[in-house]
Design goal:
This protein is mostly helical. The protein has helices at about 5-10, 30-45, 60-80, 80-95, 105-115, 115-120, 130-145, 150-160, 165-175, 180-190, 195-215, and strands at about 50-55, 100. It has two domains: about 5-120, P-loop containing nucleotide triphosphate hydrolases (Rossmann fold, 3-Layer(aba) Sandwich), CATH 3.40.50.300; about 130-215, no CATH class. Helix content is about 65%, strand content about 5%. It starts with 6 loop residues before the first helix and ends with a helix. One of its GO terms (molecular function) is 3'-5' DNA helicase activity.
Amino acid sequence: MAQELTRAQQQALDLTRNISVTAGAGSGKTKILVDRFLKIVLQDAAKTRRILAITFTNKAAGEMRERVAEKVTELLRQSEDPARAARLRRIRDQLNSAAISTFHSFCARVLREFPVQAGLPPEFNEMDEIRSYILRQEAIDRAIQSLDDDDNQNWIALFSRLSLFRVTNMLNVALEKSYEMEKVERLFSDLSKETFLNFLHQQWFRLIEPYLAQLDR
């Protein structure tokens, strides 16, 4: 039995509108993306390769492609109209080359199509998550090994409170989320050290206040 769409989901499937969907996890965003994709290609199967569907992770891209394929197979099984069935088979055959991918994969695809203009060798490879992690770790290790002895007291103070493993992990997360770190840096760049420390103290007490209240009972 088909799930009834909400009013907002119905609006999201209106192809005459440009839309932006913001919703939490598990709210059905992927379903709406799949339904919108299908609604477009069912009107014109030739558009299957002309739609750009970009997600953040390979898992999400694979899931979306799989859901579209499953839906097309289901519609093909139910179809009694030869013309509609032919259109569905064409969509199914074109799905493998459809532009459903991550941002990185799409950019790599464009660069491979225009390597001369991009000034890159056509055989370049994308950096996967494992390779990216290894390079970040190597950079952190080199940075720690090159610490200046003249500032030794500060490093001793840091590592006396946090283990080397924890500091390394924190730096790895900071490098992985460099965009977010830049936003934080811009946010606090105009604050004095005293103002920034006061802000941290306020946040700290806000977090521990509920626990302190329980201890006073």
